[in-house]
Specification:
CATH topology of the largest domain: Jelly Rolls
Radius of gyration: 23 Å
CATH class of the largest domain: Mainly Beta
Shape: globular
CATH superfamily of the largest domain: Regulatory protein AraC
Number of strands: 10
Largest sheet: 6 strands, antiparallel
Helix content: 40-55%
Oligomer: single chain
Structural class: alpha+beta
Number of domains: 2
CATH architecture of the largest domain: Sandwich
């Protein structure tokens, strides 16, 4: 099943989406990241795939987004995205595309070549093809990969590349299989907004940012938190621990319960603690308290809420104990922190409990 990304009448497409033309712009001089001339090749390839979902904005609409006056919409643009299942015969080579390509492999195997070097791509790998590079990627013949992907451009793309570590150690990074990242890629590919113009572009941008946000929560590489010899074992732990992390985030209004979390993981408390630390670099108890304190900072930034109420919302029946815990981590009492935030709001720096 494939959504046809092109129309025989670009002008009609532009009118349907409520796109606005600005007199002070010169669209004909704008370089539009596009591969329209390769769509026939892409379509022929996809006939061999198990399933394929591909969406691309028409060139006319890309040009309108590029020429739009919104500084927010200019930070990140996503003109093409999709999901290929068991994509046998998938192969793509580029030399000058002015977009970065983010590919998330969830099954099978593929390969990537850039600047004379070649990498194997496996499930749980995140592949990033930088803009304007000569690169090639293709699916393994016997175990063709299943991938989610999106093309990224925009004024802030270099900052996102740096923030997320997409260029730190080459194009490949192992993050494991994460249901929330897969779900947001699926939303991006299949759930198209009924909005038009700037609202439509914003809906695309916001889902793409959610994907990047999930990636930002992960270590830049498994090797950051373990010896190379441990990477295979840690990769196996990544998915289950990520599910427990979701459960723990939804339990911040309750006391820490190691027995409950280890039971959900299907192992002993000791094994749970070891797996959790191997993935996050922290003990589960310290991680849980750190998330509670981050939420406490957010609650204390709201006027009219009492310290006692914040403690209760975070599962602490003793507000004095909560205040001591908060002061030890933040180096400020809850009262002082709230007073400073209400008078001069500033973002809370990432916490390092203990």
């Amino acid at each position: 099943m494939q959504a046809d990304p092109h129309s025989n009448n670009p002008e009609k497409d532009s009118a349907r989406h409520g796109l606005r033309r600005r007199k002070n712009r010169t669209p004909q001089k704008t370089i539009v990241p596009t591969e329209s001339e390769k769509e026939e090749q892409n379509t022929q390839q996809m006939r061999t795939f198990g399933a394929h979902y591909h969406w691309a904005l028409p060139d006319a609409e890309r040009r309108c987004w590029l020429n739009d006056g919104s500084s927010m919409l200019a930070t990140l643009r996503v003109f093409s995205y999709g999901h290929f299942v068991q994509s046998k015969g998938h192969l793509w080579e580029r030399t000058h595309l002015q977009e970065g390509i983010l590919i998330y492999c969830t099954d099978g195997k593929g390969f990537y070549w850039q600047d004379g070097h070649e990498w194997e791509v496996h499930p749980g790998d995140l592949l990033y093809c930088p803009p304007s590079t000569h690169h090639r990627y293709w699916a393994d013949e016997n175990q063709p990969w299943t991938i989610h992907w999106m093309h990224l451009s925009g004024d802030a793309l270099p900052e996102y590349e740096s923030l997320l570590g997409l260029l730190e150690r080459g194009p490949l990074r192992h993050i494991g299989i994460h249901d929330n990242i897969k779900a947001d890629f699926t939303r991006l590919t299949l759930e198209h907004s009924s909005a038009s113009g700037e609202l439509y572009w914003f809906s695309i941008q916001s889902i793409a940012l959610a994907i990047l946000g999930h990636i930002a929560e992960l270590p830049h590489h498994i090797a950051d938190i373990a010896d190379i010899a441990d990477i295979a074992d840690i990769a196996d732990s990544y998915g289950p621990v990520q599910k427990i992390i979701t459960l723990m985030r939804n339990s911040l209004d309750q006391p820490y319960d190691a027995r409950r979390f280890s039971r959900e993981l299907g192992c002993s408390e000791r094994h749970f603690a070891r797996q959790f630390r191997s993935v996050t670099g922290m003990s589960p108890g310290d991680w849980f308290i750190q998330r509670k304190l981050e939420r406490a900072c957010a609650l204390l930034s709201q006027p009219g809420i009492r310290i006692k109420d914040v403690a209760t919302l975070l599962g602490y029946s003793d507000s004095f104990y909560f205040s001591r815990l908060f002061k030890r981590a933040i180096h400020s009492s809850p009262q002082t922190y709230r007073r400073k935030q209400l008078s001069h709001p500033t973002p809370q720096a990432p916490l390092k409990y203990k």
